[in-house]
């Protein structure tokens, strides 16, 4: 990422169980960057326990507070499943996120009312996908 978040503290989790441990200690976050495929998996099925979708459900279940969530998974099906659980989240694939010079919530959020959808498919932003 070319943009930086000033004075940020980072907490990382590489698996569903790691995320549950983090949520046991913290229930409020400014920014969360979530991936669907955890623990080195590639294109994990949506229903697997060690997936971002399970983490998204845990965030919802525990009512974890956050300012912004960016789902940066290249697994488009998994990313949209996560967004279905966390409808305020933005889906910005990692290859797009790494090229942004401005945080995505400053670029995409202002356009959402006219775009109808809150995700970026990597090539265009719009209402061509459901």
Short synopsis of the structure:
Helices cover 33% and strands 12% of the residues. The protein is built from 6 helices and 3 strands.
- Work out the helix count: 6
Query: Which range does the strand content fall in?
Result: 5-15%
Query: Could you give the count of β-strands?
Result: 3
Oligomeric assembly: single chain
Largest sheet: 3 strands, parallel
Based on CA atoms alone, the radius of gyration comes out at 14 Å
The N- and C-terminal alpha carbons lie at a distance of 27 Å
The assigned structural class equals alpha/beta
pLDDT averaged over residues: 76
Could you say which overall geometry the principal axes of the C-alpha atoms support? Answer: globular
